[in-house]
Amino acid sequence: MLGKKVEESLNEQMNRELYSAYLYMSMSSYCTSKGLKGFANWFMVQYHEEMFHAMKFYEYINLQGGRALLKAISQPPSAFESPLDMFGKTLEHEQYITKSINELMELAIAGKDHATQIFLQWYVTEQVEEESNDNEIIAQLKIINDDPQGIMLLDRELAGRITTVPTEFSKGVQAAAKGQGA
Ligand code: OFO
């Protein structure tokens, strides 16, 4: 069973994850419009990751006898200056998500909610990976320094990213994860 404040905060975090999905879908569309198919693929894979993150919250709230309450999702930005600008904004957003996950964890610790702490542990680890992925690409983009040939080479590399999270949630996240051998 969830405490009222924890349930509210889990719902807020579900909304943030849905916004993340929206943000990366917007970035993917922008990349497509600029002919950067590989970057577009990278952000669309990230969109799927964020939907998985949101659905894990949805399922956990329901599993604990709470209500997953869907709120409005804010409009994401739709224009960017460059790939470096996009990844800078991505890292900034992920740092904000890391902070919000940490605050949620602190709330669960203060309330001695052990189940929620265990549930959130996955996100703590995931955020380390999210920020590291962004930092790696930002470092490459800084070396490339807007050189078109370098951008196209990186675009080719990013085209190879594949979705590894489940994407079919009709029977729930856990069932979907089992179906994917996750
Ligand atoms: Fe859900 O990790 Fe990004 O936002």
UniProtKB/TrEMBL annotation:
One of its GO terms (biological process) is iron ion transport. It is an enzyme of class 1 (oxidoreductase). Keywords: Cytoplasm, Iron, Iron storage, Metal-binding, Oxidoreductase. One of its GO terms (molecular function) is ferroxidase activity. Its main location: cytoplasm. Its EC number is 1.16.3.2. It is found in: Cytoplasm. GO terms for cellular component: cytosol. Pfam families: Ferritin. PROSITE patterns: FERRITIN_LIKE (PS50905). Residues 1-145 form the Ferritin-like diiron domain. Fe cation binds at residues 17, 50, 53, 94, 127. InterPro entries: Ferritin, Ferritin-like, Ferritin-like_diiron, Ferritin-like_SF, Ferritin_DPS_dom, Ferritin_prok. It comes from the Bacteria. It catalyses: 4 Fe(2+) + O2 + 6 H2O = 4 iron(III) oxide-hydroxide + 12 H(+). Iron-storage protein. PANTHER family: BACTERIAL NON-HEME FERRITIN, FERRITIN. Belongs to the ferritin family. Prokaryotic subfamily. This is Ferritin. It comes from Candidatus Sulfobium mesophilum.
